[in-house]
Amino acid sequence: MSKFFFSLLCALLLLPASVSAATLTNPLGTTNVREVIGRLIQAILGITGSVALLMFVYGGFLWLTSGGVPDRVKKGKEVMKWAVLGLVVIVGAYTIVRAIVSALESGTLG
């Protein structure tokens, strides 16, 4: 068993010497920190917007399949109400972040 581990260790140590150097490409496409943060914020807002949309669809599904049961109708309406509120908050956050970023880039407000 120890011969196996020794040969494995030797293979791991000699493997990097036998592999030719490969160049790595930048997956972000930029080295500017502001652009990276901006893309990260856009991605997060996009994901949260998608989740809010899915919750809106889920609330509508609950309401449609309630069969007239008041508790299920109420639950569906509540889910849809909170999903709409979430979308309003997401759009507001996007607007505020966009205004701040443009103000920082241009040096002026508006």
Description:
- The protein has 110 residues and is an all-alpha fold.
- It has one domain (30-106).
- It has helices spanning 2-18, 33-64, 70-106.
Question: Which helices and strands appear, and what pairs or packs with what?
Answer:
Layout: H1 2-18, H2 33-64, H3 70-106
Helix pairs in contact: 2-3
Defining key terms:
single chain; 110 residues; mainly alpha; 3 helices; flat
| Overall mean pLDDT | 81
Helix content bin = over 70%
- Principal-axes shape call: flat
Radius of gyration: 26 Å
| Distance separating the two termini | 72 Å
Low-confidence regions: none
Work out the helix count: 3
Compressed to H and E, one letter per element, the order equals HHH
Category from helices, strands and their pairing: mainly alpha
Largest sheet: none
* Number of separate structural domains: 1
Task: Indicate the proportion of strand residues.
Answer: under 5%
How many E-type strands? 0
Summarize the model shown.
The chain is mostly helical. The chain is 78% helix and 0% strand. It is flat and about 70 Å long.
